[in-house]
Structure formats: structure tokens, C-alpha cells
Amino acid sequence: MTNSVSGGVRTLLQLEGLCILAVSLLAYAKFGSGWGTFALLFFVPDLSFAGYLAGTRVGAISYNIAHSLIGAFVILTAGVLLSVPLAITAGIIWLAHIGFDRTLGYGLKYSTGFRFTHLGVIGRKRIDS
Q: Which residues cross the membrane (predicted)?
């Protein structure tokens, strides 16, 4: 896929993901609502996989909405500005999930298929015998 990064740039983006995860965990330790809540909500953004039931285009859109930093920052900022602890908790957990995924190399999806991300192709390579 020609629209993905590789080499040092990919590594840098994965390190950024690790930083997002680490800062989110530190913030959650200070401002969160308990680690049980964290564990319960951590994989909620992955429900966006269901979009792939409607095809790769819809799946990529739903996945990217749930895995873009924009939504997480909007929820977190609204929670801070409006003093809504639930939004703060949700925003921090959402950011942690995105950081975790990016650290593992799971990037935003292209409509060509689930395996094709801005961080490169994910999953096993098909071996024909």
C-alpha cells in the first residue's frame, strides 16, 4: 500500500502512540473512576468493527471515527470545561485505547480493507503453497 508509512516514520508514530497511552494511564490514575471502569470501557471503541458488516467503506469510516483522536479530545475537553467526570473518564479511556492501538501498529483504515492502515498493512501475510 503506497499510502502508508514505513521505517523510522512508522516507529516514530508508534512511539507517539506509546506516549499517548502512558500519559492517558497517568491521567486516569489521577482523575479516573477506578480501574474496573477502565477495564470495562477500554475496548468499547472496537465495537466500531461492526461497521465492516456493511462493507469495507462503511467499516473504515466507523473504525476511523472511533479511532481518531478528535472525538476523544472533544469528549475530554468538554468534560473538563463543563465539569462532567463521566466525560473526563470516557475521554481518557478513549485516548488510552487509541494510544494502545497505535503502539501496536493499528492505524486508521483505508476502504480497501481492514488490513490496510496508515501505519502499514497489518495481520498475517497470505502464503500460497
A: 12-29, 35-54, 66-96
33-56 pLDDT tens trace: 999 999 999 999 999 999 999 999
pLDDT at 5: 76
Residues near 128 by beta carbon (within 8 Å), at least 6 away in sequence:
none
Contact of 80 with 88, CB cutoff 8 Å = yes
Quote the pLDDT of residue 129.
43
Bigger pLDDT: 104 or 125? Answer: 104
H helix intervals, the chain: 7-31, 35-41, 56-67, 69-81, 85-103
Q: Which three cell numbers stand for residue 5?
A: 508509512
What grid cell was written down for 64?
Answer: 476511523
Q: Is 73 left (phi over 0), alpha (psi -120 to 50) or beta?
A: alpha
Rounded Cα–Cα distance for residues 65 and 57 (Å): 12
End-to-end CA distance of the chain: 23
Which amino acid type is present at position 102?
A: R
CA–CA distances in Å: residue 77 to residues 70, 72, 85: 10, 8, 11
